[in-house]
Amino acid sequence: MGAQGSNLDDILAEDMHHWYQKFMKESPSGLVTLFELKAMLSLTGMTQEANSYVDQVFYTFDMDGDGYIDFVEYIAALSLMLRGEINQKLKWYFKLFDQDGNGKIDREEMETIFKAIQDITRIYDIPPQDIVSLIYENIDVNGEGELTLEEFISGAKDHPEIMDMLTKMMDLTNVLEIILEGRQNGI
């Protein structure tokens, strides 16, 4: 994320009280529902894939599975996106891709997420099926058509071009910028 990333790091680190106030202003109950998150980020009129992706992001950050994101989960999510170690981020990517929660990612799950990301970002540089084919050709060492967490992490780390592509595609900086706009506008 370059210079912008360090700016976001500084903002997160400098004032936890501000983040709490922002969170409570956006959600006075102290809990954010999926509907409130979509409204906060102005995510309307999305395709089914994009809507599914946002749902999946929400559920990966709802660590206790209660249907809400509380302040601790909110800060954990921001911290992961801004400062998370590569293994932490890869585990999060895996969890995001593993839509059915069976501990494996199949091609369809991965393609659905990449389509959704493109629908949200409006960046259609590479067709999702090409991205998935590249990943599976390089990482699916057993040729099973599914990736375990271990295969995914070691494969991504062993192939810098895949790691770079994942990092760019999964970058949620634009979401953080929407959240941060409130700070710059005095919210």
Question: Characteristics of this structure?
Answer:
187 residues; mainly alpha; two-stranded antiparallel sheet; two-stranded antiparallel ribbon; disordered N terminus; disordered C terminus
* Relative strand content: 5-15%
Helix content percent band: 55-70%
* Cα-atom radius of gyration: 17 Å
Largest sheet: 2 strands, antiparallel
The oligomerization state is single chain
Average of per-residue pLDDT values: 78
Number of contiguous helices: 11
Which structural class should the secondary elements be placed in?
mainly alpha
| Sheet with the most strands: spatial strand order | 1-2
Global outline? globular
SSE ordering:
HHEHHEHHEHHEHHH
Runs in which pLDDT lies below 50 for 5 or more consecutive residues are 1-6, 182-187
- Cα separation of the termini: 24 Å
